[in-house]
Input
Amino acid sequence: MDANIIPPLIHLLGNAEFDIRKEAAWAISNATSGGSPEQIKFLVQQGCVPPLAELLNVQDPKIIIVALEGLENILKIGDAEAKHMGTDNMMVQIVEQSNGAANIEQLQHHENEDIYNKAVRILEQYFNVEEEDPGMAPQQMAGGQGYAFQPQAPMGGGGFNFGQPMG
Output
């Protein structure tokens, strides 16, 4: 921070080619993991959250995990400060404004189990989102070729009767 490398590093995180963005993500995530609360808040003030949130949409599972860990560390600092001050977690709002919460929600459908588990944990802990009820989803048909929707009994007895005059 004293060398003023954070602003250019965050610029690279959001704007460089992917290989450089990956390295910048590692650097920022490492800073959130070993930095003091003041240092982490400085990273947030410099704008690290939007590019980290954007990296949740890439195809590289390792980078998604790195970005999730960075965001989780930021949320932890916000949570500790909120509990100490008796206020809301301001980091939650920053992550939400950066589309981070929506991107994390999408990761509940990720094929990588580590990503799925980390996303669910973050959503439950910081965003008051409960894990989707697996009983609500349609069951997959044998062979995985589609979904078997179960008909529901009509509510209130008769349901709708189209084509018949009301009377």
